[in-house]
Design brief:
Length: 376
């Protein structure tokens, strides 16, 4: 029996075989990068190479890359770190109602510790209106933190327009780009951001490693305190093999993007066509034609997405993507789009990866159609 077709790449991706090989080699580099002898220097050189590779992916300079233990940690460092560093200037932060919990929760935490947070809504396609962000700004606003590409609905925000407004007013812009790497271009100068979050396991590296881009000169206080690694912003002995893996994944993502993105889009659109041909009333959620090329958030009529996935689980592994947000300023992303309860109930997130073949799409579509016909 074959394994189910994996259509949950927004949750996590398989480790790329080339990345795994680079990581395996790096396991032998056991020196501490802070040691002055040859073993330490070898480890430091491996970290430096990975830093350059990650910097190249986002067109930053290597000194602007801070390695972290993943996107959650990078988001916490960006948001809490910038808030602490800027508190004397102001205590107001603007974010959106569709942020990942790793952005929403630090914002909420700050709102309980002397800061005020405004969460801006989204339109029916999941876009944060730039004007709404501009309208939310106050004289004491210090930071805007807005997701780049949405993990559930795939909508991509106009970060460049938002950061342009912020910069004119001396406000920092952070974006959580955990879902963007390897799927869409990610140049920090084009985006105009001061802080940008990356997550290794969303683009072929293992879990538990990520990075925060910190534009040179950005005020940032550490969240963890300890020794001086990562310019004191993320102290603790570096996880050299994971960092090497992140570097290799970044190198591959950069080379592959021009071919990967159109291929993902074509296969995603094929999946959408197959489902629409067979099931009257399926409806795409978010931004059907723009957005992340690998993501299809789609509502099946008359069934619960959860039940559909359970009925087809031997053939397809995907998720409903309707994560609950714990804090009052946050909503389920589909509710934030203004979708009816029925449409939200029937939603499934199908997210493709580089290894998803046309045959996988045909089989997955057939399995989902069969499961729908049984349940509806
Ligand atoms: N931000 C976004 C948009 C994500 O999709 C995820 C992962 O689900 C994260 C942050 C958190 O990543 P991690 O769990 O690796 O820290």
């Amino acid at each position: 029996m074959r394994s189910p077709i994996y259509l949950d790449h927004n949750a996590t991706t398989p480790v790329d075989p080339q990345v795994a090989r680079a990581m395996a080699r790096a396991l032998k580099i056991f020196g501490n990068p802070s040691s002055a002898h040859t073993y330490g220097r070898t480890a430091l050189a491996a970290v430096a190479q990975a830093r350059a590779q990650v910097a190249a992916l986002i067109q930053a300079s290597p000194a602007e890359v801070i390695f972290t233990g993943g996107a959650t940690e990078a988001n916490n460092l960006a948001i809490r770190g910038a808030a602490f560093a800027m508190a004397a200037r102001g205590r107001h932060i603007v974010t959106s109602v569709v942020e990942h919990p790793s952005v929403a929760a630090p914002c909420h935490w700050l709102s309980e510790h002397g800061f005020t947070v405004t969460a801006v809504g989204v339109d029916a396609r999941g876009h944060i209106p730039v004007q709404a962000v501009a309208d939310a700004l106050r004289p004491d606003t210090i930071m805007i933190s807005v997701i780049h590409a949405h993990n559930e609905i795939g909508s991509v925000q106009d970060i460049a327009a938002i950061s342009a407004i912020a910069r004119r007013r001396g406000i920092l812009t952070h974006t959580d780009a955990a879902q963007s790497a390897g799927k869409i271009p990610l140049a920090v100068e084009d985006l105009g951001v001061d802080l940008l979050t990356l997550a290794g396991h969303k683009f072929g590296a293992p879990k538990g490693v990520g990075a925060l881009y910190v534009r040179s000169g950005t005020p940032l206080a550490p969240v963890l305190v300890g020794a001086g690694q990562e310019r004191g912003l993320r102290p603790g002995t570096e996880n050299v093999p994971a960092i090497v893996a992140l570097g290799e994944a970044a190198r591959l993502a950069l080379i592959r993007l021009p071919k990967t993105a159109p291929r993902l889009r074509a296969r995603r659109d094929l999946l959408r066509r197959r489902l629409a041909e067979a099931i009257p009333g399926v409806a795409v959620n978010g931004d059907p034609d723009g957005g992340l090329p690998n993501t299809l958030n789609i509502s099946f009529p008359g069934v619960a997405g959860r039940d559909l996935l359970a009925a087809s689980e031997r053939d397809v592994a995907a998720s409903t993507g309707s994560a609950c947000h714990a804090h009052s300023s946050q909503q389920d992303a589909l509710a934030a789009l203004g979708l009816s309860p029925e449409r939200r109930r029937g939603a499934v997130r199908l997210s493709l990866g580089r290894s998803t073949t046309v045959a996988d799409i045909e089989e997955a579509a057939a399995a989902l159609i069969r499961a729908w016909a049984e349940l509806a």
